[in-house]
Design goal:
The protein is α/β, with parallel strands linked by helices. The protein contains nine helices and 13 strands. The protein is elongated. The structure holds NADP nicotinamide-adenine-dinucleotide phosphate. NADP nicotinamide-adenine-dinucleotide phosphate binds next to helix 1 and helix 3.
């Protein structure tokens, strides 16, 4: 049985992960972490094979675990990463919003422990990355690329990590550097669209779980590649697949393309 700890178990993804672990025949909930001061501290989680008390003590909760699944916020997740490294516990990192240096730090942890880091753990989105790569290579430089994403009103980072990854995939396929060609939102007298840029537009509202569309707009036609998530269970199931993938594999840094066997397709 894979011994799983869930960080941020009070959150939207944390709740979906608790359900997914509970339903998985090969996983057992080893521990659950929340923010210090959370109302859930000390609560006994029902439904687990062994009763699990929700804790804020990261090292004690991770002791003896196989893997931590983290969908929280940037600061706590980096603290969790340090403790995982120290204790030799694998990490599935689903949190988004990291800057370049923080992403580098997560990648470096792969020298000591198994790490899967992906801004989107759904099978469909990871397939979409491959479709985007193909579309960009075939359509080439003459099609304007715009990325539109929509999420629920509680999301704290923008554009979404998934939208940024989509931008990176397209930029790489077109031989561009996203940091140089991204345009984040437009307002006022912007002038004409600059060729070779990749535009991002963000929508926030209600309970939208996660919609992404990449538009390749040419002269006389446009191609749109879209993904719409309708349940967080798709991300939770993907995170469990990632946890199983790391089991018995040793140290290394991976993303969902590795987990799903999509790399190089
Ligand atoms: N990779 C993917 O497939 C994927 C899919 C969906 C979401 N995400 C990302 O996952 C993250 C969580 O999303 P969500 O919608 O579940 O958010 P959420 O509902 O706000 O949950 C965040 C969780 O983190 C906890 N937390 C906040 N600050 C903390 C701290 N200082 N120490 C410990 N725990 C802390 C929260 O505890 P309290 O409730 O006590 O504040 C809560 O349990 C976001 O970065 C989101 O973009 C990734």
């Amino acid at each position: 049985m894979l011994k799983v700890v869930i960080a941020g178990c009070s959150g939207r993804m944390g709740q979906a992960l608790l359900e997914a672990v509970h339903e998985a025949p090969d996983c057992v909930l080893h521990g659950a972490l929340v923010r210090p001061g959370s109302e859930m501290v000390g609560k006994l989680l029902e439904g687990a094979a062994q009763p699990v008390r929700v804790s804020v003590d990261v090292p004690a909760t991770l002791a003896g675990a196989d893997v931590l699944i983290d969908f929280t916020r940037v600061e706590p997740s980096l603290h969790h990463l340090d403790v995982c490294e120290r204790l030799g516990v694998n990490l599935v990192m689903g949190t988004t919003g990291f800057d370049a240096a923080q992403k580098q730090r997560i990648a470096e942890a792969g020298q000591k422990i198994g790490v899967v880091f992906a801004p989107n753990m759904s099978v469909g989105v990871n397939l979409t990355f491959g479709l985007l790569d193909m579309a960009a290579r075939i359509l080439g430089q003459d099609y304007d690329v715009e990325i539109i994403e929509a999420h629920h009103r509680h999301k704290v980072d923008a554009p979404s990590g998934t939208a940024l990854r989509m931008g990176e995939v397209v930029a790489r396929a077109l031989g561009r550097d996203l940091a140089q060609c991204a345009v984040y939102g437009r307002e006022g007298h912007t002038g004409e669209r600059e060729a070779q840029t990749i535009g991002f537009a963000t929508v926030r509202g209600g309970d939208i779980i996660g919609d992404h569309t990449v538009m390749f707009a040419g002269v006389g036609e446009r191609v749109e590649i879209s993904h719409k998530a309708s349940s967080r269970m798709t991300f939770a199931q993907g995170a469990l697949r990632a946890a199983r993938f790391l089991s018995g594999r040793g140290a290394g840094y991976f993303d969902m393309q590795d987990v799903l066997g999509l790399r190089g397709l």
